[in-house]
Amino acid sequence: MWKGDKMAAKNETWFERNCLSDDCAADLRLHGKLLLHVRSHLALGGVRNVSLNVTISNAGDDAYDTNIYFNFSRDVFYINYWQKEEKGISCGLVDLDFLQCSVGFPFMRVKTKVWLLPVMLIFVNCLLLFSHCSANPEHRLLDNKLDLSIPLVHEVDTAITGLVTPTSFLYGNSIVASRFIQLEDMECNFQPLNFTFQVINNGPSRLPGSIVDIRIPNRLAGNGADMFHIMDIQVAEGQGNCTPHRNPQPCSISQDRESIFHTIFAFFTKSGRRVLDCDRPGRACLTISCTLGSQSKEEVVSIHVKLLLNTEILKRDSSSLIQFVTRGNVRVDGRAIEVPQGLSEDTSLVFEALHSQEPRGYVVGWIIAISLLVGILIFLLLAVLLWKMGFFRRRYREIIEAEKNRKDRADESWDWVEKNH
């Protein structure tokens, strides 16, 4: 051949394919499932390892240059793969969301099965996550494609804490009225109380919404008057709203003046501590419900409640100390679920009302006067009792003269003895 001339060679190689069917076609079948290990869902905002169990089998003739393609979300990161036994499988990323695995190169024989386990690292930030797998046989069939989806949920770990001020206060007739608050056209003395509740979302997901219930003991007895009057409720930064129960008559108790005898009797018959708890059956409570908006991970939402407690109702109780147990609870709405065995969704706040034991000045005077009167009555009663028993009827003059005569005789006897000696 001369320089510059093109030279070509042609060759044909014949080989036996060992076909079992007339069309000599492969029949690849793809099966797979997701292995989430612990739970059957993924939490938005979380990070987890997920395995994909894939099995490819050939039910037809030999398949040449068989590949499995994995197409997944950009929030999924491929880590590695594992095969049950060495089958000549190799995998590599074509793109960040596209994985190619070569199976049985150069060809996959008839009646063979390959088991493959790719492992993925998932940052769950999207609302839909799926893995699309496909095998490229010589003839595509319906069982050559596989779509696997992973349920995604808002999974959160919510908690609630609270604070009340003051934690204790004094009330009673001896306490000056200037220490309390009085509403217009009302004679009742009210003790102000401030509650603060904080709802915390510890993640891992964003909390779409939640409901907070606050329960405060509102009556001393089931059919008694309401003790609390709501002045103000605020959710910080407008992240929610509350629907409280309003008290139309904050000062609805009887305004009749108590008698002095009732006041003295109540002073001497004070009992010990009394506990008012909304978790106890039959207790009438003031319920405040607040609906909160969305909360990101680690975000805190505060609820501020200002109340007035009618101390005039407390004066009617015989307890020297009344303990109020307020309950707070947070629950997520239907768009989210709580983390199993997470933080507590309940909290309790305790404050105490101490009944002043010091009576008023005029009560002290009456107590002294009544005590003297009772003492005189007891003395007269004792004197009458002794008189009835004859204590004052004995002959004291005769007894005294007899005793004097006895002493005189004793002295004379003693003088006679001394003379004889």
UniProtKB/TrEMBL annotation:
Primary location recorded for the protein, binned into one broad class: membrane
GO BP terms in the entry: cell adhesion mediated by integrin; cell-cell adhesion; cell-matrix adhesion; integrin-mediated signaling pathway
Domain of life of the native organism: Eukaryota
Membrane topology value: Single-pass type I membrane protein
Single GO cellular component term: external side of plasma membrane
Species whose genome carries this gene: Oncorhynchus mykiss (Rainbow trout)
GO molecular-function term, one example from the UniProt record: integrin binding
PANTHER family: INTEGRIN ALPHA, INTEGRIN ALPHA-9
Transmembrane annotation, as ranges: 114-132, 363-387
Protein's recorded name: Integrin, alpha 9
Coiled coil regions, renumbered to chain: none
Integrin alpha third immunoglobulin-like domain: residues covered: 160-332
Keyword Glycoprotein recorded: yes
Domain annotation Integrin alpha second immunoglobulin-like: ranges: 19-116
InterPro entries on file: Integrin_alpha_C_CS, Integrin_alpha_Ig-like_2, Integrin_alpha_Ig-like_3, Integrin_dom_sf
Keywords of this entry: Glycoprotein, Integrin, Membrane, Transmembrane, Transmembrane helix
SUPFAM superfamilies reported for this sequence: Integrin domains
Subcellular location(s) of the protein: Membrane
